[in-house]
Design a protein that fits this description.
Elements lengths: L5 H11 L13 H5 L13 H4 L10 E9 L5 E12 L7 E13 L6 E13 L4 E13 L6 E15 L2 E8 L17 E11 L2 E10 L9 E11 L2 E10 L4 E11 L4 E9 L5 E10 L1
Antiparallel strand pairs: 1-2, 1-14, 2-3, 3-4, 4-5, 5-6, 6-7, 7-8, 8-9, 9-10, 10-11, 11-12, 12-13, 13-14
Length: 290
């Protein structure tokens, strides 16, 4: 792919301004948050690069800023701020997304708050009318008081098969690189397999189903299952609902959200609530098509 142009220069200048603020690689954005984490087989937002890099091959050029805050579980809190840029110019060899996230995590078995930074890059290319392939790489760094920086390099490999414009299936391999044993368990990136299905029964509705299985710390080989429904309710508004059954931790979550889809900008709101203790994450994204 050709080098990014002026858009990426502006993006880099923007993220420099985030250095004193606070995101989490699992909470890619507010759109997928409201879908309970589904979207590996279909998501038209820059955060799709986190779920399945193959989806990058289908994106259009755009920019996104995201802010998320809340408690994903009891005695845990996360604050997330970041930005993403999609370069999908026609003369590129492949589409690309570059993202930056600033992370702050407390609780989750950590003795102190953990401040992190995530750089994430993804490439996606349409290889045939039905098949799309993508790859991503990321560098995640955490700073914990009283200890040295905890650095992790990892990535994802994603594939998407489109039977037609209304139905697709996906496979994603996340975090194939061996874990850094010096990093606290709560902050490690676990090897995970993911399957996704996308179905658009008619123009104004979308159904998504995702199944994931982590390979470490999962002696019973449990899976996570998520389902979501999205519908267009008016000319410029979308609503969405989702449910996640977390088989590893044995809990249920539900999510929801809405979008304003204007000609010059798109505003997303999403939330995800743990039904066990009612702890909730909220998020807002602003997307600008180029």
């Amino acid at each position: 792919m050709r080098a990014f142009g002026k858009k990426s220069v502006l993006f880099l200048l923007f993220v420099i301004g985030l250095q004193s603020q606070a995101t989490d690689q699992f909470a890619a954005g507010s759109y997928s948050l409201g879908l309970s984490g589904t979207g590996r087989a279909g998501l038209s937002s820059p955060e799709a690069a986190f779920l399945n890099p193959a989806l990058v091959g289908l994106l259009e050029s755009s920019g996104q800023v995201t802010y998320m805050d809340g408690a994903p579980a009891e005695s845990a809190h996360r604050t997330i701020i970041g930005a993403s840029l999609v370069d999908a110019e026609p003369n590129n060899m492949s589409n690309g997304v570059i993202s930056y996230r600033k992370i702050r995590r407390t609780g989750e078995g950590l003795d102190h708050a953990a401040d992190g930074e995530l750089w994430h890059g993804a490439l996606g290319k349409i290889l045939s009318p039905h098949f799309v392939l993508g790859i991503s790489a990321r560098r995640l760094t955490y700073q914990i008081p009283g200890s040295s920086l905890k650095d992790q390099w990892n990535g994802s490999l994603g594939m998407l098969y489109l039977f037609n414009s209304s139905f697709g299936v996906a496979y994603v391999l996340d975090n194939p690189v061996n874990e850094n044993e010096d990093i606290p368990l709560a902050l490690r990136q676990n090897l995970t397999h993911g399957l996704g299905v996308y179905f658009k029964p008619y123009e104004m509705a979308r159904i998504r189903m995702d199944v994931t299985k982590q390979e470490r710390f999962n002696p019973s080989n449990n899976v996570d299952f998520a389902f979501s429904f999205e519908a267009k309710t008016a000319e410029m508004f979308m609503i969405r609902l989702g449910h996640l059954w977390n088989g590893v931790e044995g809990r249920n979550e539900w999510g929801g959200g809405l979008s304003f889809v204007g000609p010059k900008l798109i505003l997303d709101y999403g939330f995800r609530q743990n039904l066990k203790d009612s702890e909730t994450m909220h998020g807002v994204d602003l997307r600008i098509p180029f």
